[in-house]
Amino acid sequence: MSPHGTRAASASYQLNRAGDANRHSGLVGLCFRGVPVLGPYGVDGPMDGNSTIVRLESCYTLSACDDPTTVSCYAFEQDRYNRGVCYLDRCNGRETVTPEPLQDALGDRVDVYFMTLEVDGGLAFPCLPFCNQGDVISGSCGTGGGGMNRPPPGASPPPGN
Q1: pLDDT by position in tens, the chain (length 161)
Q2: DSSP 8-state assignment for residue 152
Q3: SS3 state at 79
Q4: End-to-end Cα, the chain, rounded Å
Q5: d(Cα 63, Cα 59) in Å, to the nearest integer?
Q6: Is 92 helix (H, G, I), strand (E, B) or coil?
Q7: Residue 12's closest CA among 34, 45, 41, 36?
């Protein structure tokens, strides 16, 4: 069971309605600067809309600690991300093909954030976007897709996130 209790169980039920092992998640909301946030299911091959639907896993792992609800208990596993063992970058996002129902609004590929769930349906850290990608000061959204400017591999989330 999730360390977040009953409310988390209710939230995870709602997220599963936005996708499952047979269909891509839909739009859950918008993050800062209008970057889409999708539910926890997407395509295995981020640029292949016909690839298998999977539960997109964060690359954060829980370290030994007393309180799993504390952010400092989690570490981003860059090596696992580089090898493709997990799907999402430090901010819980990735560039991907856009689910067909959203293509009119977002184009055929987009940078998006994803919500994350455990196998049992409980919320998985960080659940929501963990940091903001891009140039916040000028509001520059880069080019194409949602325009998140990805940090270089191994970079940490921006200060204050």
Answers
A1: 333 333 333 333 333 345 787 888 888 888 877 888 888 999 999 999 889 999 999 999 988 888 877 888 899 999 999 998 999 999 999 999 988 888 888 889 988 999 998 888 888 888 888 777 654 434 333 333 334 444 444 444 444 44
A2: P
A3: helix
A4: 27
A5: 13
A6: coil
A7: 41
Q: Which two tokens stand for residue 78?
A: 């860059």
State how far Cα 133 lies from the chain centre.
12
The strand pairing partners of 112, in sequence order, are 94
Q: How far apart are CA 55 and CA 127, in angstroms?
A: 12
Q: How confident is the model at residue 23, as a pLDDT?
A: 83
Q: Which helix (H) or strand (E) holds 80?
A: helix 78-83
The model's pTM is: 0.69
Of 91, 66, 64, which Cα lies nearest the Cα of 76? 91
Distance of CA 118 to the CA centre of its chain: 13
d(CA 66, CA 72): 11
Whole-number Cα distances in Å, 11 to 2, 81, 116, 128, 136:
11, 27, 11, 12, 29
